[in-house]
Each structure stands twice: as structure tokens, then as C-alpha cells.
UniProtKB/TrEMBL annotation:
GO terms for molecular function: ATP binding; ATP hydrolysis activity. Keywords: ATP-binding, Nucleotide-binding, Transport. It comes from the Bacteria. It comes from Flagellimonas olearia. SUPFAM superfamilies: P-loop containing nucleoside triphosphate hydrolases. Residues 3-227 form the ABC transporter domain. CDD domains: ABC_DR_subfamily_A (cd03230). The keyword Chloroplast does not apply. SMART domains: AAA. The keyword ATP-binding applies. This is Copper ABC transporter ATP-binding protein.
Length: 237
């Protein structure tokens, strides 16, 4: 699913967060949206989702502007950074509820097994550990088949085994030609997963390109150092 973003602006009060983001996202690739805390990564993602309304600029998905047309949203699977689950319902009830709402086939059984969630199905969400809540969040995101997958800090709280499963899931989706956007502060994860780095700085895309290009541009020996050094090299968007 191709996304075109043109001259996107967004401010909250006096805080001008996005100052003219131009971006094309093509299908079959994994993009990592990086940038310092508060640089606008979540704001950009939420603009694509229609959860934040931009002040200026345009977003088109499959060549259609998303303004006033919310139907495109059923083609997106979104993993929020902080899942606000209703505390008093059980894991099983939540999964059923979401399956009913989406009314499309789901791979919930395999995912529940994969992430070892069977023992938690009858527990209330408020009683789960942070990592277990994140596993539920992941099941809810990946159980439907959508061409665009947006993951905001997907690794938060996961143990090593769950992290491996998550990486396998993401690669399997990519192999099916899906478009995947990820934000993460875990550079090793980004390095393993991303085809393309999008680095947001001061409201604009400051760098767009492969990890190899980033290493070349910054003349650093590894990815983590390259990201840390990115702001001292000139813009390459
Ligand atoms: N609904 C809102 N109302 C007011 N300010 C907001 C709102 N949402 C975001 N902001 C502000 O916009 C800026 C960018 O926030 P955003 O969450 O997009 O950053 P981020 O790059 O995702 O940060 P992080 O790496 O910390 O997750 C921050 O200064 C934040 O306080």
C-alpha cells in the first residue's frame, strides 16, 4: 500500500511539531521512523491513521487523499505505543470483542499459542504484567490480514523469546508484500528489521535511506553511532 505525504504541518498550541514532511512510502518494505524524543514520530503515525488532523498538507493512500474518507482505515493494523485496554475485561473477551468488530477472518488461535497466552485468557487485563499486555497487544494487531501495518514501539517489555516471535511475524508480513512502519528506540531491532530509515528532526525528514547509505554519509563504523552522529551531518532527505 503506497502512501504519499506532502508538506505535512502540525502544531499543538505553539509547539510546531511537523514543519513540512514530504515522504513516499512504497509497499513491500519495512520503514523505521526514528528521531529524538518528542520529534513527532507518533504525531506522524497518528496523522496517517487519521487520529491527528494536520494543519496543512496532504496524505494520500493508494492515490486517494485520506481527508473525509475513513474507509481506508480498515486496511491498517495498528499497534499503539500504550494500549489503553479496558481493565476489567478478560483477555479472551477482549480478543472476541475485537474479532467481532472487525468481522474478518483472524489468526488469533496460532498467535495466542505462539505467544504462550493460553494461561492468561481468563485473566483480567488489569492483572497482567507489562510484557504480557504487550503480547496481547501484538495478537490484536497481527490477527487480521491488512496491507499496511503500523507498529509504535512494538518491543516494549517483551522477553527474548517473544521478541524473536515478533521479528518472525514482521518478516513473514513483509514476505507477503505488506508495507510496515515501525518506531523504536532499540537500534539493534531497527538494524535487523528496517529496509529504510526515516529520521525526523525539527519537524522534517532529515534523512531517508538505507542503513548502508547512513553509514556512508556519517562515516561511522556502526549503526548506533551513525544515528547518534546523524545530526552533525548535513540533511540527506
Ligand atoms: N495531543 C497533543 N497535545 C499537545 N501536545 C502534543 C500532543 N501530542 C503530541 N504532542 C507534543 O508533540 C511533540 C511530539 O510528540 P510525539 O509523541 O509525536 O513525539 P515522538 O517522536 O513520538 O516522541 P517519543 O520518542 O518520546 O515517543 C511533543 O512535544 C509532544 O508533547
Amino acid at each position: 500500500m503506497t502512501i504519499h505525504i506532502e508538506n505535512l504541518h502540525k502544531k499543538f498550541g505553539k509547539n510546531q511539531v511537523l514543519k513540512g514532511v514530504d515522504l513516499t512510502i512504497t509497499e513491500g518494505h519495512i520503514y523505521a521512523i526514528l528521531g529524538p524524543n518528542g520529534s513527532g514520530k507518533t504525531t506522524l503515525i497518528k496523522s496517517i491513521l487519521g487520529m491527528v488532523i494536520p494543519d496543512k498538507g496532504q496524505i494520500s493512500i493508494l492515490d486517494r487523499p485520506i481527508k473525509k474518507d475513513w474507509k481506508y482505515r480498515k486496511h491498517i493494523n495498528y499497534l499503539p505505543q500504550i494500549a489503553n485496554f479496558p481493565p476489567n475485561i478478560k483477555v479472551r473477551e477482549l480478543i472476541h470483542m475485537i474479532t467481532d468488530l472487525r468481522n474478518s477472518p483472524s489468526a488469533k488461535k496460532e498467535l495466542i499459542e505462539r505467544f504462550g497466552l493460553e494461561p492468561f485468557l481468563n485473566k483480567k487485563l488489569s492483572t497482567l504484567s507489562g510484557g504480557t499486555k504487550q503480547k496481547v497487544n501484538i495478537v490484536l494487531t497481527f490477527m487480521f490480514n491488512s496491507p499496511l501495518i503500523i507498529l509504535d514501539e512494538p518491543t516494549t517489555g517483551l522477553d527474548p523469546r517473544a521478541l524473536i516471535y515478533l521479528k518472525e511475524l514482521i518478516q513473514a508480513e513483509k514476505a507477503q508484500g505488506k508495507t510496515i512502519l515501525i518506531t523504536s528506540h532499540i537500534m539493534q531491532f531497527v538494524q535487523e528489521m528496517a529496509d529504510e530509515i526515516l529520521y525526523l528532526l525539527e519537524g522534517e525528514i532529515y534523512f531517508k535511506g538505507s542503513i548502508a547509505k547512513l553509514l556512508e554519509d556519517t562515516q561511522q563504523k556502526n549503526f548506533e553511532h551513525a544515528i547518534a552522529a546523524i545530526t552533525t551531518t548535513k540533511s540527506h532527505a
